[in-house]
């Protein structure tokens, strides 16, 4: 069935611009909503094994929720497109051709996910579209030279497409006029139970990855690409998250849980999340070399989300497809440099099913 596209006014941004919510849907199968503020994924309704549609991504019932004081003080990028660069940097800086770029701090003494006003807080131009077998929205943003102290003018397009099978694709495309760095991702938080008062510890998780990136005490990659064998990061066989995350392990202690990048072995079906109680299953494919997995370690019920639920620790899991964190400061990681004349492209596909 061809997806349906609808749009409505969702609110007003802090700088007085209209925020629009776009909804892509197939009746009784899937409903995806995204907004032009932060090119943010706000809702995902999918059925359980009894056909009951429930929302399975963290967010808020209305746009005012994204501006509430308690959320902004404990900001965690619910559903946001983050950039220019996801993650942290060693010493909050990077170097291009011998020139150092010091980045502004936005979470304590770190620069995280693009800075004080990253792409997650921008109003993007939106172009909805419909084809014979799909519907979607392309968001466009011009990131100016020097924005958050990153060099070069970047033009970035993020396209959400829902096809007739209920498959969702997020596609990124970017160009620059100067040598710069780029590593965007989507920061959706999934809880396939549809009950955000529950944790995701009883979800089964699989990732086709023989290696992960070890972290130091600053939650930055050490540069070591570690084998998952014998560690709580071995999800090469579908495993209940609680079986691994509750192990006595120094890496888990450093991050408060899993907040690690997995080196995926293949593009197709490289990760799977499954909730045995509801039967909902998510299968993920990506062109990116890494999957940053974050188990909601710092959610602490400090703000209320959908339905008035205060999101607590492990209320959801993020599956952030991207290049490796801090790649610009690790020469043995895949490069995130983007040169004039080149085109950055990335694609992630989400397939939803019921078991």
What would the principal axes of the Cα set say about the shape?
globular
Query: What letter string, H or E per element, gives the SSE order?
Result: EEEEEHEEEEEEEEEEEEEEHHEEEEEEE
Classify the beta-strand content into a percent band.
35-45%
Average predicted confidence as pLDDT = 97
The description of the largest β-sheet is: 9 strands, antiparallel
Rounded to the nearest angstrom, the radius of gyration is 19 Å
With strands numbered from the N-terminus, the spatial order across the biggest sheet is 9-10-11-12-26-22-21-16-19
Percentage of residues assigned to helices: under 10%
Q: Number of DSSP helices? A: 3
The beta-strand count equals 26
Unreliable stretches? none
Distance between the termini: 21 Å
* Structural class computed from helices and strand pairing: mainly beta
What does this structure look like?
With 355 residues, the protein is mainly beta. It has three helices and 26 strands. Strands 9-10-11-12-26-22-21-16-19 form a nine-stranded antiparallel β-sheet. The longest helix is centred in the C-terminal third of the chain and has 6 residues. The relative contact order is 0.16. The model has no long low-confidence stretch (mean pLDDT 97).
Summarize, please.
With 355 residues, the chain is mainly beta. The protein is 5% helix and 41% strand.
What labels describe this entry?
355 residues; mainly beta; globular
Layout of strands and helices, then pairs:
Blueprint (H helix, E strand, L loop, with lengths): L3 E9 L5 E9 L3 E6 L4 E8 L5 E3 L13 H5 L7 E2 L10 E4 L2 E4 L22 E6 L3 E10 L10 E10 L4 E9 L3 E2 L3 E2 L2 E2 L13 E4 L1 E7 L5 E7 L11 E2 H5 L4 H6 L3 E6 L6 E4 L5 E7 L3 E5 L22 E6 L14 E2 L5 E11 L1
Antiparallel strand pairs: 1-2, 2-3, 3-4, 4-5, 6-14, 7-8, 9-10, 10-11, 11-12, 12-26, 13-25, 15-24, 16-19, 16-21, 17-18, 17-20, 20-23, 21-22, 22-26, 23-24
